[in-house]
Structures are given as C-alpha cells and as structure tokens.
Write a structure and sequence with these properties.
Length: 214
C-alpha cells in the first residue's frame, strides 16, 4: 500500500521533507526498512510504505536524490534495516549500487542512527519460510518477478499491506526488513512460524541497548 507519491521526479533533489507518517504506538521503537537501489528505493515503516525515485543520467545527481529522500524518512528512526547485497549476482551497475548502499550507511552513522544489514536470503526466509521458494504447481524454484511476487503476496497475507505501483516489489521488500527488525526488538507485527522466525538468528544485529536507549 504505497501511501504517498514518489518524492523526487527531477534531477534536482527536493528540499521538502517527507510527508507525515503514522507514528508507532507509544513505547514502540521507530524502525524504517530500506530496499536501496540506484533508481527506486523502497521504504517502509509500521503500517505504511513509500519510495524514492531518482531520475536523470548523472550518477552524482542520482546519488544525491536517493540520499536526500532516504534521509527525509530516516531522520527520526531508532533503527534502520537495510537490504544487503545478493552475493554471486553479477549485476550491471553493481559497483554503483554498492557505493550507494555504503553512502546510506555512512550517512546513518554520521547521524548516530543504528542500522542493520539483512541479506536477501534472510529476508525471504522471514517472509515465506525458505530462501528458495518453489512454484506449487511445477516444483521449480521461483525466479525474477515470480520470486518478487511471492514476497509481495506474503506481505499482503501476513500484514494486510498490499503494495502497488512501480515500486511495489521494493516497498514489499522494505516492509519485511522493517518487520524483521521490530520482531528482533520484541515487537512482532504478526505471528510467524519457527520456519520464518529462524531468519532472525542469522542476522548480525546491532547492540540492542544502543537502539532501545534512543
């Protein structure tokens, strides 16, 4: 359920902050999930999703648009959950994407906002119970949009959040990341089975006291 339009539609970053978002219930940490990419970054908090879209051909401009839009959403966060790299994938633009992810982490570090990096496999296990889900009809492993669609459907089924539009897969990914971090902090958004909950055990989480003391 994308609750707001893209923040950036031009090469020049907008100065305005992101619109108001539902605040967590009293006592619950404010956690933000980020599926960082060069073109569209999916963003999620409890009960909402959004995205930042960079345009133009200038790599520097695209970096700046992404960083500014992400910062608008994370400025009040207690913890940010970021999707890590899918190792073994030789994607075009991998160097630029790695740089983008590290710039996001560095910006959070400068602002003393704790973050955690969660791999795509850990994210998928938490969403559906396995890192390599299969088509129930053919038994073949899901790939591409079918794999992304399975996670998006899991978000709709588990949390009642149906993401739509061009960033629907990115926003669904971000929602799972956010849900994982809240679960680790002791605030699960839904009841999940042991097959899914086990994903939390393999994540390198930050110091819990650093997060809860904010």
């Amino acid at each position: 359920m994308s609750t707001a339009p893209a923040l950036f539609e031009t090469e020049v970053p907008a100065a305005a902050a992101a619109g108001p978002r539902p605040a967590p219930a009293a006592g619950i940490p404010r956690v933000i999930g980020l599926d960082v990419a060069m073109g569209i970054t999916g963003i999620a908090g409890e009960g909402w999703t959004d995205y930042v879209k960079a345009k133009g051909t200038s790599q520097h401009s695209r970096f700046e648009q992404q960083l500014a839009g992400i910062a608008d959403h994370t400025r009040h966060a207690d913890l940010v959950a970021i999707e890590g790299a899918a190792y073994g994938h030789n994607n075009n633009g991998a160097d630029a994407l790695a740089a983008m992810r590290w710039m996001v982490r560095h910006d959070l570090w400068k602002r003393r906002i704790p973050y955690v990096v969660i791999t795509p496999g850990q994210r998928m296990i938490y969403a559906v119970g396995t890192a390599a889900p299969k088509d129930p009809g053919t038994g073949a492993r899901l790939k591409g949009d079918a794999l992304k669609g399975a996670l998006r459907q899991a978000v709709a089924d588990t949390y009642g959040i149906t993401t739509e539009g061009p960033a629907r897969y990115d926003e669904a990914d971000a929602y799972i990341l956010m849900a994982m971090a809240l679960h680790w902090l002791g605030y699960p958004l839904a009841v999940v089975g042991d097959d899914r909950r086990r994903a939390l055990d393999s994540v390198r989480w930050p110091d819990r006291a650093t997060v809860t003391a904010r």
